[in-house]
Amino acid sequence: MRSVEDLNGRKRAILIAAEKCFAAQSYEGVSIRDIAHEAAVPIALVGYYFGAKNELYHAIFEYHSSYLGNRLNQLRDARRQHTGGNMLDAVIAAFVLPTLELNQHPEGQYFCRVVMRGAIDQHEASERVARDFYDPMARECIAALRDALPHASNDSIRWSYQFMLGALLHHVVDTRLSHLDEHDAPLQHATPYLLRFISHGIRAATAEQ
């Protein structure tokens, strides 16, 4: 994740404010005025630094490009450095752990919610983000799963990717469990359970029937 110090004060404030607004409500429901109010800057300054709303939305993902690039590189390393049964767990870890690490920071939590909302709303701005930032990662992950599970069908691999993504996104944005169980534990304590859940789920889903 880029350091917030890489941006000047007001530009940084606008970007973080945009993350908060897009995390809290739908893309269509957020206005430039809302973002300017959250950032405590004149509305014209938002357009000066970022242009239209769709460009500001895209800039959020550019801001997190180092995290996205690191995640993609870890997937590639998992394909190169692991073989056989170890590869699947390495691929899952490469896909999951960077997001869990990001989600430990307040700014990262906002970003994870923006990602989740974009996946649900499927608006034009989110489709551009998917093409630019997430499609390369999805293709790399699916290719890595194929390498790790060479006897699995293409359909089972593609759906396994989809279900792994769903489990990860739901885990990082849904905090209701803390209200349901009096024996609450820090979110990071769930990491080994999530990894095992995904690993066993993929192995079962891709097994020959």
From TrEMBL:
DNA-binding region: 31-50
Domain HTH tetR-type: residue ranges: 8-68
Keyword terms, alphabetized: DNA-binding
Protein name: TetR family transcriptional regulator
Residues spanning the membrane: none
Protein species of origin: Undibacterium griseum
Pfam family for this entry, one: TetR_C_30
Annotated InterPro entries: Homeodomain-like_sf (IPR009057), HTH-type_TetR-like_transc_reg (IPR050109), HTH_TetR (IPR001647), PsrA_TetR_C (IPR041586), Tet_transcr_reg_TetR-rel_C_sf (IPR036271)
Keyword Nucleotidyltransferase: no
Signal peptide segment: none
Alphabetized Gene3D superfamilies for the sequence: Tetracycline Repressor, domain 2
Protein's UniProt keywords contain Zinc: no
